[in-house]
Amino acid sequence: RINCDRINKIYNCEVTSVDYEDANQVFTTCEDGRSFTSTQAIVTVPLSVLKDGDITFKPDLPTGIQYNVDNRDWWGGFKFFFEFDTDFQPDGSFSIGGGSDYESGVLTGEHLAWDYTRYCAPNFEGERNLVGGYFLGTKADNFENMNEAQMVQKVLSKFKEYYSDENGFTQGYRPDSYQQHLIVNWEENPFVRGSYSGPDPKGFEGHRADNRNKIFIAGEACPAPLF
C-alpha cells in the first residue's frame, strides 16, 4: 500500500513534453521550464489533452495507444446539483431526460439523476434536500450554446414534467421547490474539455503501455471491450 503523504507532489506545473527514449530514464518537462527525471511515467491527463496534442512524446506514442487516442470519442457534458425544499421527496435514482442514447447499437449519450442527500450527504437528511445528476454525450448536446441560466431553466422544466401527472404534482414537488443550484460544466474546464470517452464500436485495443514499460496511460472506470 502506498503512503501518499510520503510522495513528493508538485502542483501548477503543466506538462508539455515527455521524453522516454532513454533506456533508463524518463524526462518530463513543464510549460514553465521545470523538468523532472524518473524511471517511468504515468499519464493521467484526459483523452482530450492527448487528442489536442498538448503533450509532445518522444518517441511518438506506440501505435496501439495512438489508435485509442485517435479513434475514441470524447463526450461533452455537465453535472448539476439542485437544492429543493424538504417537502419534495425525489426518487432514489431517475431520468428526467429519457434513457441512454444509442446509434447503430453504440452508446452515444447518458443521463441520470439521483437523491444526493440520501446517497452522498446523509447528514443533511431532513434539513437540506439535494439532487445531483449529469447529461453526457448526445444528452448534453441538447444544452449546446446555452448560458447557465438557460441550462438551469431547461433542467427545471424536466423536473416539472417528470414530477407531474393529471392531478398536479407528485412526491411533494412544486415549481417553487427549487432553491439554488451548482452547474459543473466540464467542457469549460481547460484541463478537462469534456466528460469522458465514449465507447469505440470497433472494440477497445487494450494498449496502455509501451513495450519497454516506460510510459503508462491511465484507464477509465469502464472495462473493455468497448471502453
From TrEMBL:
Residues 11-222 form the Amine oxidase domain. Pfam families: Amino_oxidase (PF01593). Gene3D superfamilies: 3.90.660.10, FAD/NAD(P)-binding domain. It comes from the Eukaryota. GO terms for molecular function: oxidoreductase activity. PANTHER family: FLAVIN MONOAMINE OXIDASE (PTHR10742), LYSINE-SPECIFIC HISTONE DEMETHYLASE 2 (PTHR10742:SF410). This is Amine oxidase domain-containing protein.
